[in-house]
Design goal:
The structure is a single chain. The protein is mainly alpha-helical and about 375 residues long. The chain folds into 2 domains: about 5-190 and about 310-350, 3-Layer(aba) Sandwich (Rossmann fold); about 215-310, Tyrosyl-Transfer RNA Synthetase (Orthogonal Bundle). Helices cover about 55% and strands about 5% of the residues. It contains 17 helices and 5 strands. It has helices at about 15-35, 45-50, 55-75, 90-100, 105-110, 110-120, 130, 135-145, 155-170, 190, 215-225, 245-255, 255-260, 270-280, 285-310, 310-340, 350-364; strands spanning about 5-10, 40-45, 80-85, 150, 180-185. The strands form 2 sheets. The protein has a 3-stranded parallel beta sheet with strand order 1-2-3. Helix 8 packs across helix 9 (about 155-170) and helix 11 runs antiparallel to helix 15 (about 285-310). The N and C termini lie far apart (about 50 Å). The protein binds adenosine-5'-triphosphate and magnesium ion.
Length: about 375
């Protein structure tokens, strides 16, 4: 079977380094690996509206921001189809049919949705669209027959839900939908990068982000203000690594070669960690090291972004072309789905003959 990728992001803000280590960096590698017949990357504007209905302009303004972040990270429209979710009406149609295959209590059990409902104080008034977004996500994934979905670990319950819909559909109707697999980041720190405030997840909605488009100075200030170990008051005190954001970021960004360049007195991250635990290593020194590494990684991205910012109409054109190509693929799947459901009445010559025969008998 051909390997196909689908993944995406909500245009609720610029993309941050959590997206980068959790998904973006990997997408570029996968795109360039030549192993995938198709790579679809979606700007999920319709999904973003489900919890931003008071502020649709935010979603509208951030389409271009997300697209710029994609291109500056190295997603290449010659290899990857970049699309905007709302421009593919077939996705709504698929969602509508999949809704019959899922129960309310199953949606209520989805841990990510539960958590997000809490975060947004939606308890008493959950928009129906928000509550059902895992179903619409199943439509996105299956519309493109995706085999592989590179995401952070907060998305695992969505993939699980999608698999259930696929199995149910294929059992009730006919095996036309493809069972997708999540592709998680290689290391734990990347699965859910914490915010600079030490909160469990860096997230656009929590305002605790280092953005890919931040200036070098903004990045440095954010890193220097990062949450570390509150008990590590004196340099000589022993330090803790658990919940220490600076070390989590080092796990996500640091490679052994960085020591040669920026901190030659240590051989590798294990040595640095051991010294911190023993005591005698100050937070400032570790933060400066992290800053050097992050700047090295972000600098080329920032430079490419400046270049792409010079021709915004060209980027909308890329998104338009991508959305058109994506629409063709989704329409093909929808047609197969409708045939499997036998709601393709006008193409079903047998049905028309059968019904006609029924009435002919009645008349005879
Ligand atoms: P929002 O707050 O609007 O939900 P978000 O920051 O959570 O925004 P999404 O667009 O929901 O971003 O997520 C896009 C992708 O990035 C998903 O695959 C998600 O798993 C991944 N991702 C988001 N935040 C992180 C993070 N902190 N660490 C690792 N991966 C992340
Ligand atoms: Mg999210």
């Amino acid at each position: 079977m051909d390997k196909i990728i689908l993944t995406g992001d909500r245009p609720t803000g610029r993309l941050h380094v959590g997206h980068y280590v959790g998904s973006l960096r990997r997408r570029v590698e996968l795109q360039n690996s030549g192993e995938y017949k198709k790579v679809y990357i979606m700007i999920a504007d319709a999904q973003a509206l489900t919890d931003n209905i008071e502020n649709p302009e935010k979603v509208r303004q951030n389409i271009i921001e997300v697209a710029l972040d994609y291109l500056s990270c190295g997603l290449d429209p010659a290899k990857t189809t970049l699309l905007i979710q709302s421009q593919i009406p077939e996705l709504c149609e698929l969602t509508f049919y999949y809704m019959d295959l899922v129960t309310v209590s199953r949606l209520q059990r989805n841990p990510t949705v539960k958590n997000e409902i809490q975060m947004r104080n939606f308890e008493a008034s959950i928009p129906v669209g928000f509550f059902t977004y895992p179903i619409s996500q199943a439509a996105d994934i299956t519309a493109f027959k995706a085999t592989t979905v590179p995401v952070g670990d907060d998305q695992l319950p969505m993939i699980e839900q999608t698999k259930e819909i696929v199995h149910k559909f294929n059992t009730v109707y006919a095996p036309v939908l493809v069972d997708p697999q999540a592709l998680l980041p290689e290391n734990e720190a990347c699965m859910r990068l914490p915010g600079i405030d030490g909160r469990a997840k860096m997230s656009k909605s929590l305002g605790n982000c280092i953005y890919l488009a931040d200036t070098a100075d903004e990045v440095r200030k954010k890193i220097m203000s990062m949450y570390t170990d509150p008990q590590h008051l004196q340099v000589s005190d022993p330090g803790h690594l658990e919940g220490n954001t600076v070390f989590t970021y080092l796990d996500a960004f640091c490679r052994t070669e960085h020591f040669g360049r920026y901190l030659p007195e240590y051989a590798d991250l294990d040595e640095l960690k051991a010294h911190y635990r023993r005591g005698g290593l100050g937070d400032v020194k570790v933060k400066k090291f992290l800053n050097n590494i992050v700047q090295e990684e972000l600098e080329p991205i920032r430079e490419r972004r400046k270049m792409f910012e010079r021709d915004i109409p060209a980027i909308f054109e890329i998104l338009k072309k991508g959305s058109e190509a994506a629409r063709e693929a989704a329409a093909q799947t929808l047609s197969e789905v409708k045939s499997a459901m036998r709601i393709n009445y006008f193409e079903d010559a047998e049905l028309i003959r059968e019904q006609a025969a029924k009435y002919e008998e009645g008349q005879g």
